[in-house]
Amino acid sequence: MFDKILIANRGEIALRIIRTCKKMGIETVTVFSDEDVRSLHVREADHAVHIGPSPAPESYLAKEKIIGAALACGCRAVHPGYGFLSENTRFADEVTKAGLVFIGPPASVISLLGDKTTAKRLATQAGMRVVPGHPDPLNGIEEARIAAKTIGYPVLLKPAAGGGGKGMHVVVKEADLEPTFTTSQNEARKAFGDDRIFLEKYISRPRHVEIQIMADHHGNVIYLGERECSIQRRYQKIIEEAPSPAVHRDLRTKMGRMACALAEKAGYRNAGTVEFILDPDGAFYFLEMNTRLQVEHPVTEMVVGLDLVELQLRIADGQPLPLGQEAVHINGWAIEARICAEDPERDFLPSTGIITRYAPPRGKDVRLDSGIEAGSTISVFYDSMMSKVITHGETREAARHAMIQALNRYHIEGVYTNRDFVNAILNHPAFAEADLSTRFIEENFNKKQTERVFNSEDLHFMVMAATLVYHNRQTLVRDSLKPMTAKVGQAHEEKPFHDYVVKGEENVFQVRLSRDEISRHWSVNVDDHPYRVITPHFEFYRRRIKLNIDGQNQYFHLQYRENFIWVAFCGITRTFEIYTPGEWHLVRHMPTATREEKNDTLFSPMPGLILDIKVKKGDWVYRGQDLVIIESMKMESGVSSPCDGEVKAVHVQAGQTVETGDVMITFES
Ligand code: ADP
Ligand code: ADP
Ligand code: MG
User: Fold this and answer.
1) What ligand has the least distance to the C-alpha of 297?
2) Ligand 1: which residue has its CA nearest to atom 19?
3) Which residue owns the Cα nearest ligand 1 atom 17?
4) Do residues 202 and 155 lie in contact, with contact meaning Cβ atoms separated by under 8 Å?
5) 519 three-class SS
6) pLDDT per position as a tens digit, 249-278
């Protein structure tokens, strides 16, 4: 076995690989950019080599620097992780030429399967059905028009070299084909340096199901079951699970054997994933093959009980697979949720900053693959995915429940995250019923409504959490104001109950708290619904609390400012105002202050690089019209006008970087 390897990656996946290396007694070397000096993957590795400035092309994508570091440190092999150089044919080739082992398939295989059109041809030869479409990259718009007409709208334009959903666009009618084709080409050129586009029939409500395979250098190929990754946004996976609720035993065997047949035909080695889309009637079509370890590999590990990174290392070392197909068994169910720094309330704009508070979820059914800790910086340079929460249970329902609890307990402060949105998906009845498709989010959530439907009990729980925290805090403040009073003999001065009026966003709740001083249990009435509550650890400094309500533990996130308490629970977020009945009497008669909003300035909503400004001084603009395109964390976002009006001045220019809140454009409205 290798005694030392280099990990050409960062974040959670670098840490994931380090973990297995430690277990196997392999020394690790990581590389890092300026931005990552203090990051976890630098600290956790045995050695770390600085390889350049923060932009990925000058560091994590700089092949020579990485290979140079591997040689200088005496490494024997290179693990590319996912993203970055993991599917780069030239990198794999150069690593091998430098006398190092590339932990992945041979360069020639990456090149064959990395091009989606050649991969589809190979899949057809291996006996698979592929998504109907034009077999080759399109030579111009005319060819696209004919192909689309033959296949029938809607069609999906896809970059041949694609990955991460970039450059993919649906076209529903011929009139949109030409402009969309150009957009796809431009995006593909930017993302992959290759603007070849091909076209497929757009399947309307499929599931995404993929097969994990492993192939060694001795002719053995096995499949480790499937994963379902239908919950996606912008063609990017958000929640994944194994097994798939739509795949029964026979279908698994069929898909698995086909995936292995393709691997054999391609001369595949190491870990790989064959992606399919699955029709409601059980027909499946080959999409693409990913020639690397995937983001969602942990759900497979949890159900088959294998360490995929360990298998990758053993295979790369020339060892035969330690098990055959008959020894692969699926136990229970696993779900993964990707936690990203983005703001669901602002159309998932990336969010950057320093993690000021951090409390990871723990538990025997919870696994956290994280690249962050308190103090970590989330920068504009890299992917917005910070960590992955993985839960396991005997059944899908148990794994789902464990995930909801884990997300309720996972506290990240300092950047916006998709945690509550992901939790809303997990709590959605359609998710619970496994009624999944790649359009799930589109069908069940919309731009304004990132929440799920909820019942009055959920709301009552949140009201209780807010009121108890408020009460506790008032009591603490009151006690601290009279430090000189003797405490002895005062216990019975306490009132038997405390009433509060809690104003929610749509309702007003009457809450009565009373505490049994002996058992220390609370009896809580919310609008005359009685609950029994125990406050086991009233741990609040991490902004999360645990309450035992009617015998069940529940976890909440809270933040307060005066009478306002913000609460998050099971994907619902609400702000409550809390008053004593006396205060409420006064507050109710006060005029609500109307905040005067001045909308004559366009501020930058995030840090990033300005790619394009679509207007100039004197132009008339409409509210909602995209005016500036900003790139941040590998994503381009349009920033839209806050008002109708005339552009008075443009304060920024393309190519410039901006911070959150920088003035970009002013208007005369
Ligand atoms: P998976 O199929 O493993 O779920 P994704 O398609 O979501 O993976 O991509 C995995 C990671 O690699 C993501 O961080 C994604 O942004 C990144 N990525 C994928 N393809 C590319 C690419 N061609 N260039 C750069 N980054 C990529
Ligand atoms: P990437 O390399 O970006 O992962 P894929 O070809 O795997 O690209 O497609 C990503 C996602 O886009 C799939 O998981 C699926 O949800 C959707 N998709 C791809 N092709 C089609 C299609 N022909 N019809 C409908 N959805 C598709
Ligand atoms: Mg894919």
Assistant:
1) 1
2) 164
3) 83
4) yes
5) coil
6) 999 999 999 999 999 999 999 999 999 999
